[in-house]
Amino acid sequence: MTTQVALVGGTGKLGSIIHAVIDGLEGFEVSRVLTSSSDLAEIDGADLVVDATTPQVSIDVVRAAVERGINVLVATSGWSAERIALVRPLVDDAGNGVVFIPNFSLGSVLGSALAAAAAPFFPSAEIVEAHHERKVDSPSGTAVRTAELIAAARADRGPVSAPHADQRARGQQVATVPVHSLRRPGVIAKQEVVLSGPGESLSFVHDTVEPALAYAPGIRLAVPYAAQATGVVIGLESMIDIGIRS
């Protein structure tokens, strides 16, 4: 039996990459492609909805799918823990699954996990993320997820040290971690996590060079997983054994 996929935002750059990967997955077929402005009733009859829209549209896509009892794979950025909490009761009541993937790159997921593992040993942590000038949200979903993982890893030690956080130039605090967002031409996606302590610092850098190649392995993992998921699942780290769970 072939799993019928409704791809919302399928005409965008990420949506096009996801479409190409699903076309190569045995047992899956993109049976309908929607744009961010399509009537969401078009997802009726799908077995899985994949959302690659915008932060403003994404929540409507998730709600529409959950109300219809359809599992959802959310590839749209901008889903913080607070925003996910808004839809978690809907998912729990419906009994289906919603999988949120801040970044499909395995390297990015590993970099965030390593930073979180190291975070309890350093009092200071800051994130600098850079994306192309067309990215509409900031901080990035990857930076938000990384900050949340760092905060969770430091639960027993307390929040990171962030002096002068009241000054706008110190970045936006996410889970107490200052995040600095760059939006500029000449870059696709790059993130650096800087951990600092007395007399030393440790940095984790991930740089996306070719999105189609970087994201494909993660998409191949996430699509079949999302089709069978139950409840709310966050991140590729839930699908690979790297010692970090949402």
Mean pLDDT: 95
- Number of contiguous helices: 6
CATH class assignment of the largest domain: Alpha Beta
> First CA to last CA: what distance?
31 Å
Q: Which bin fits the share of residues in helices?
A: 25-40%
**Tell me about the biggest sheet?**
6 strands, parallel
Question: SSE string, helix = H, strand = E?
Answer: EHEEHEHEHEHEEEEHE
What is the CATH topology descriptor of the largest domain?
Rossmann fold
Let me know the number of strands.
Answer: 11
Could you list the spans in which at least 5 consecutive residues all have pLDDT below 50? Answer: none
Q: How is the quaternary structure best described? A: single chain
The CATH homologous superfamily of the largest domain: NAD(P)-binding Rossmann-like Domain
Kindly give the count of domains.
2
| Overall shape | globular
Please tell me the CATH architecture of the largest domain by its name: 3-Layer(aba) Sandwich
What fraction of residues sit in β-strands? 25-35%
